[in-house]
Amino acid sequence: MTLVPAACFSTRQLRCEGSDPKWLRYSYYTAGSGGAGPTILETSFLLAGEEVVVYKDGKEVILPPISNRREVDFGPGVGRKGLYLYNLPEVVSGHKYLRVPDVSARFGTDPFIWNWAMWLTARLIPRKLLNDRAFVKRFAALSDPFVRNVDKIVGEAVAMRVEVDMMNGKNSSGIFVHKYLSQSMGYSTAAFAQSVLQGKTKPGVWYPEEPEALQDRRQFLQLAATGCSRFDLNRSAWALESEITQIGGLIYW
């Protein structure tokens, strides 16, 4: 789920506005399970058992899982969604390799009741059980039939938004929307494989933010975005909103 946005910004791109980055926000949304079934369920349940690492003013801050709701606008077709903090690895790697002092990552799904269910899971089920992979696998298998039935109604879309606030007050954002999560993951994986085969990824294991991971990010993104209903980079935050009203020379949203 995080392959594309994690690779969207290099350190050079983050500083292309002539100012250092201050705040990096990763925002993710899937409709239902995105067609991934038990895989995304197991991941979500495991994350419900982990404290969340975020960075504020360059310092690590620990927060409860699935907390600090924030409404994020993914633009026309998806709209505004309520997202919650999860302990996702790109927070640490983004802070370390992109040298951004403030970093956070949020995730949400439809229908909204699933978010409530995850919130309750993180608070009612003992942390010891949520850290037990065998238990989580059984729990996900039990939940899967209900989730798949809901998927038939809400679809399998995925949306990702990356926002960077600069020290000088400017903002740069990117958005990725695909109708099918499984297809978008396939294209993203193929894009990384192509980079390896072409020698544009150095031997080893890298976080996507590291320069060794992708030496030609433009080519990678062109392939990874295959089939997207929307893919924009380096746009102002207001340009990605669902409803924009312009009155005279002013823009309201």
SSE arrangement:
Elements lengths: L2 H6 L2 H4 L6 E11 L6 H11 L3 E5 L2 E5 L3 E7 L6 E6 L3 H9 L4 E9 L1 H13 L2 H4 L2 H22 L3 E9 L4 E8 L2 H17 L19 H8 L5 E6 L9 E3 L2 E3 L1
Helix pairs in contact: 3-7, 8-9
What does this molecule look like?
The strands form three sheets. The chain has a seven-stranded mixed β-sheet with strand order 4-5-6-1-7-8-9. Strands 2-3 form a two-stranded antiparallel ribbon. A two-stranded antiparallel sheet has the order 10-11. Strand 7 (158-166) and strand 8 form a beta hairpin. With 253 residues, the chain is an alpha+beta fold. It has a single domain, classed as Dihydrodipicolinate Reductase, domain 2. The longest helix has 22 residues, at 133-154. The two termini are 28 Å apart. It has helices spanning 3-8, 11-14, 38-48, 89-97, 112-124, 127-130, 133-154, 181-197, 217-224; strands at residues 21-31, 52-56, 59-63, 67-73, 80-85, 102-110, 158-166, 171-178, 230-235, 245-247, 250-252.
